[in-house]
Amino acid sequence: MFLINSNSAYKSPLDPRDAEALGPVAAAEVERFLSHRQNNAKTPLVSLGGLARKLGVSSIHMKDEGFRLGLGSFKALGGAYAVMRLVLEEASKRLSRQVDVTELRSPEVLALAKTMTVACATDGNHGRSVAQGAQTVGARAVIFVHSGVSDQRVAAIAGFGADVRRVEGTYDDSVREASRVAIERGWTIVSDTSWPGYERIPSLVMQGYTAIFREALRELQDPPTHVFVQSGVGGIAAAAAGHLALVMGDTRPIFTVVDPERAACIVESARAGHPVTVDHGEPTIMAMLECYQPSLVAWRILSRVADAFMTVDEQDAVTVMKRLAHPVGGDPAVVAGESGGVGLAGLIRAIGDRHIKAHLRLGDQSRVLVINTEGATDPLKYEAIVGEAPGSVLSRNAGAAA
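The line above is the sequence of PLP-dependent lyase/thiolase; the predicted structure tokens follow.
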């Protein structure tokens, strides 16, 4: 499925709240917060020149979030950042003064954080980020996971000291249960999706993601003409599209949102012209994107600044994982989890369809940016799909460098 944005809000200015959350001033503050986190380093921007030549475009660059903060996913930026912000805001309120991130590990802030409990639902990666953020500040974390989340991903969340609770059903069922219990217990919900009356914290989560694009734009010799980003509830796509629109203005790239065919809540919202919930059917291999109800904040942004929406199928996701593990034309190998390469899968599908290619004005002058949103966050599942362990795939890069 492929849709050009025909929403009545298309190309209208962002809501002032979203412009403030995703603009350059906020993004700079995100990077300042990052400097106070362990394992902080910019992630690689990988040039896929061999694949670009094969597809007939000028360049393809992939921002590889599989190395982000030791968590293996772009989600490391959002949940933990929001937890840090919320603890500092509560400290500022209780101490009657502005408390800065430089005081995060001070006795006063640590004592306050111990009284706080943060909660969220997750497919795996967001929960790890919230759990790590809570561990960093000394707060308690309760993470709700649905029945499809693998035991390895649950163990990774629990490894940060979180209380992990299983919920029957889908991701959206776990969101509802996390919200119900958190309200009942007086906990703070740190969700990466939003609903009526709950927008600010998801906006903080999305704000954390702006670091990805700030880093990429600094490193790229020429700005991208096209960006393909996978969706889920829409947070990462909205953060990308909103930030690029704000910092690049009229020169912003053509932006395409890519959904799994089996969980296309953003694409179906684009078709309907308003947020819609899609039916739960057969699970998708793209587990981190298996979301059936869009974030209202994300949709508000994407309806204005996304240019197109498309879906990819199960085989597209598998093929791109294998293609990145066994690259062409001297390109480096990239370990992409089941959802990690979906933006690139969208590009490949678009190039292979004359109708889509023409609509997106893809050609030999196109400079494409995509995001590997996750590495092998479930190594056993990765090996079962690709036929090789993630460490073995990455060892080829070391051998090439030698």
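Note on the example: The mean pLDDT is 95. The two ends are 44 Å apart (CA to CA).
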